[in-house]
């Protein structure tokens, strides 16, 4: 599950960054399609360390007052 989440974050990051470049006029949809590959996304996903998939748990602050 962690590997899949890392790849999802990598895909989101790459696509959103490329959309910003398209909006700014410095890239095109062709650039987006040519810059993304499954291997590239997997490699980028593996570079993320400490990705937390779990919500924090603990006692409610309101209960301790």
Question: What secondary-structure arrangement, pairings included, does this model have?
Answer:
Elements: H1 2-24, H2 29-35, H3 38-47, H4 61-64
Helix pairs in contact: 1-3
* Low-confidence runs: none
Give the helix tally.
4
Largest sheet: none
First and last CA, distance: 37 Å
Dominant shape? elongated
Q: Tell me the total number of β-strands.
A: 0
Share of residues in strands: under 5%
Class based on secondary structure composition and strand pairing: mainly alpha
What can you tell me about this protein's structure?
This protein is an all-alpha fold. The protein has one domain (2-48). 68% of the residues lie in helices and 0% in strands. The protein is built from four helices and no strands. The chain has helices at residues 2-24, 29-35, 38-47, 61-64. Helix 1 (2-24) crosses helix 3. The longest helix has 23 residues, at 2-24. It is elongated, with a radius of gyration of 17 Å.
Quick synopsis:
The chain is mostly helical and 65 residues long.
List keywords for this structure.
about 60 residues; 4 helices
């Amino acid at each position: 599950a962690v590997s899949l989440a890392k790849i999802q974050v990598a895909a989101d990051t790459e696509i959103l960054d490329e959309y910003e470049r398209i909006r700014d006029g410095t890239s095109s949809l062709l650039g987006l399609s040519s810059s993304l590959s499954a291997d590239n996304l997997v490699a980028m996903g593996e570079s993320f360390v400490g990705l937390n998939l779990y919500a924090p748990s603990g006692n409610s602050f309101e209960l301790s007052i």
